[in-house]
Amino acid sequence: MRYLRAENPARGSVLGTRIALADRWWYRLRGLLGRSELRPGEGLVLRPCRAVHMLGMSFSLDVAFLDHRGGVLASYHALPPGRRTRWHAAAADALELPAGTLAATGTVEGDTIVCTEV
């Protein structure tokens, strides 16, 4: 599996330094199921992804839907287990992060997230 670093240049903040890239069907299917937590700096990019469900999850996540340029189209703060997001037709990726990361980094809709391979 490949790993990414995600930054928000407009806010001068780093969202994560060890974000797994799930760009194959098996990785997307499994997602974060079976994990008990995400540590600060960890995360998952689901590519492609237009909606997320939290069925079977045991912890909350922040989720940002990104367009093909990394623009934040929608964000969900502390999405709890058992819930789901809306469908975002223009989304290319979903960035899943530990709950509180989006608020702590000041990331809002309209920002651009830059992901680079590590």
What's the gist of this structure?
This protein has 2 helices and 7 strands. With 118 residues, it is mainly beta. Strand 2 (13-22), helix 1 and strand 3 (42-46) form a beta-alpha-beta unit.
Task: Tell me how many strands there are.
Answer: 7
In order across it, which strands form the biggest sheet? Answer: 5-4-6-3-2-1-7
Give the helix level as a range of percent. under 10%
* Sequence stretches where pLDDT stays below 50 over 5 or more residues: none
Beta-strand content: 35-45%
| Topology order in helix (H) and strand (E) letters | EEHEEEEHE
What structural class do you assign from the helix and strand content? mainly beta
Shape: globular
N-end to C-end Cα span = 11 Å
Please give the radius of gyration in angstroms: 13 Å
Which tags fit this structure?
118 residues, mainly beta, 7-stranded mixed beta sheet, 2 helices, 7 strands, 9% helix, globular
Model description:
This protein has 118 residues and is mostly beta strands. It has 2 helices and 7 strands. Strands 5-4-6-3-2-1-7 form a 7-stranded mixed β-sheet. A hairpin with a 5-residue loop joins β4 (61-66) and β5 (72-79). The chain is globular. The model has no long low-confidence stretch (mean pLDDT 96).
How is the secondary structure organized here?
Blueprint lengths: L1 E7 L4 E10 L2 H6 L11 E5 L14 E6 L5 E8 L13 E6 L2 H5 L8 E4 L1
Parallel strand pairs: 2-3
Antiparallel strand pairs: 1-2, 1-7, 3-6, 4-5, 4-6
